[in-house]
Amino acid sequence: MNVGLISNTYSGITGGQGALQSARTSVDTAKFSELVERFKNQNESRGTVSSDQIAESGRLNGEYTTGFAGTFTTDADKAARPTGAAANQANIHVQPKTIDKTSELYQKSMELENYFVKQMLSEMRKTVHRSGDTDFARQTYEDMLYDEYSTAMTKNAGFGLADQIYLSLV
Fold first, then answer.
1. End-to-end CA distance of the chain
2. Are 79 and 156 in contact (CB under 8 A)?
3. With contact defined as beta carbons under 8 Å apart, do 44 and 62 qualify?
């Protein structure tokens, strides 16, 4: 059988719509290929951008939390005294230490303390009795809210866990 005969028969049955659809598909495919080539050429001339060029070091793109970068910036923060539990020295013969709160190590220590505070708040939140109508959006919003609560508590409550972590790593 001849392919042209089949094509003509198909066009005759569909009233020419098959040929029209085939032509549209060919045009769309050509336009899409042209668009892909244009993007490839554009990226080759510009170069690619990696995620570490977009986001702060150590953070993911799209993170919604405020984080701890830039929390401590003054000169007094470079030689701060420990707070909270880290300030309690059991031995009077131990030389008091200072903490550089502007360092990246201290920021990471605060992130670890934040994780522990977030876990504590999560367990506390489970004890609250709620009515049965909780949807996904509400749960997501509350998770984000409690993430910010834990960040604020880590920055302001003075637990001293970040100070202890920092002192043990220095």
1. 83
2. no
3. no
CB distance 86 to 164 below 8 Å: yes
Nearest-angstrom CA–CA distance, 126 and 145: 15
Which tokens go with 157?
């409550």
Q: What pLDDT digit, counting tens, does each position of 19-77 carry?
A: 777 778 888 888 888 888 887 776 665 555 555 555 555 565 555 556 677 777 777 77
Lookup: tokens for 86: 């880290």
What number of CA atoms fall less than 13 Å from residue 142's CA on the CB side?
A: 12
AA letter at 105? L
- Spell out a b/e string for 138-147, using b for 16 or more CB atoms within 10 Å of the CB, else e: eeeeeeeebb
What is the residue whose two structure tokens read 């990696």? Answer: 50
Could you give the angle at which helices 161-169 and 104-126 cross, rounded to 10 degrees?
A: 140
Q: What are phi and psi of 99, to 5 degrees?
A: -120, 135
The distance from CA 83 to its chain's CA centroid, rounded to whole angstroms, is: 29
- Using a 10 angstrom Cβ sphere, with 0-12 exposed, 13-18 middle and 19 or more buried, the burial of residue 76 is exposed
Closest CA to 109 of 32, 166, 69: 166
